[in-house]
Design a protein that fits this description.
This protein is of the alpha/beta class and about 220 residues long. The chain has one domain: Rossmann fold (3-Layer(aba) Sandwich). The protein is built from 6 helices and 13 strands. A hairpin with a 5-residue loop joins strand 12 and strand 13. Helix 2 packs across helix 3. The longest helix is centred in the first third of the chain and has 19 residues. It is globular, with a radius of gyration of 18 Å. The model has no long low-confidence stretch (mean pLDDT about 95). The protein binds uracil (URA).
Amino acid sequence: MVCVMKVHVANHPLISHKLTVLRDQETDSPTFRHLVEELVTLLAYEATRDVRTQEVEITTPVTKTTGIKMASPAPVVVPILRAGLGMLEGMVKLLPTAQVGFLGMVRDEKTLQASTYANRLPEDLTGRQVFVLDPMLATGGTLVAAFNYLIERGASDITAVCILAAPEGIKIVEDAFKDAKIDIKLVTGALDEKLNEHGYIVPGLGDAGDRLYGVV
Ligand code: URA
C-alpha cells in the first residue's frame, strides 16, 4: 500500500454555524472552548468511521443476537499541546475507552519549524489506530513532525482531526508521506483559502491556543 492521504472536509450546516462563531474575533474564550468541544464531537463522528470493530454475541430481553463493539486494543488519542488539548474532551466523549497520549510541539514563529518539547505516549503503537488532535493545519510542519514521531513508534494508521486546514499544509503533509506505507487520513471542519506571510490561516480564526487559553 502506498499512502495517499484521504481528506474529508465536513459539510454540515451545524459545523458551518459553529465555525462562523469561532472565527468571529468577538467570541470570548469560554464560548470558544465550548464550541471547539462541540465541533470536535461532530468531527469525531466522521473521523471514527473506520474505527476497528468486532462481532459480539449478546442477549436482548427478546432474543440472542450478534452485535458490533469496538475492537481491542482501543484507539489512542493524541492531542498536540497546547491547542490540541482544547479538542480532547470533544473526542473522548465519543471514544470514552480510548487511551490518551500527549505530544508537546512548538512552532518557531520565524522559521515555522516544529519541534517536540514533551511527550507521554505508549512506547509501541504497532497495530493501534491513532487520532491526532491539532486545531490548525497551517504550514503542515507540526503534523509532519507528529506523524513521524508516531510512525517511529510503530503507528501505521493515523487520522488527524483539525478544525481548519490550509491547502498549503495539506500538500506538505501529502508530499511528506506520499511513499510511506501507512494509512493516513485528515478530517477537517473547513478547508480555508490560504496561509498569510506569518503562516496564519486565512480567513482562519487567529491563534487557536491564544483564543482557547489566552495569550501567555
Ligand atoms: N496556528 C494557529 O493557531 N493559527 C493559525 O492560523 C495557524 C497556526
